[in-house]
Amino acid sequence: MNSNMLLKGTLQTIILKLLEGNNQMYGYEITQKVKELTAGEIMLTEGALYPALHKMEAEGFLETFTQIVDGRARKYYKLTEEGGIQVNNKLDEARAFIDQLQNILNLKPATK
Prior knowledge:
alpha+beta, Arc Repressor Mutant, subunit A, 59% helix, WH-like_DNA-bd_sf
């Protein structure tokens, strides 16, 4: 599945939802979790992930902290209070979009 174009519009939602369920994560961990949850069908690249993380941090949705793990600094991302609110907003937007997409593509069974 070539999901790069579809992924671009949902990347922020995916990241926020993962952080909501995992409290804190580092970048590589996020990429691996997406790969695991999609059985390898969606692969996040660093070139897509890190700009999205930095943008969400600048918008106040994420906070960061660094820990030393195995002698190396690892930057963790965590939702702020505003980020927690945005998770619900983004999920509502995604659901509404999916509903409309299903209507347009006739993916829903006809209601009688």
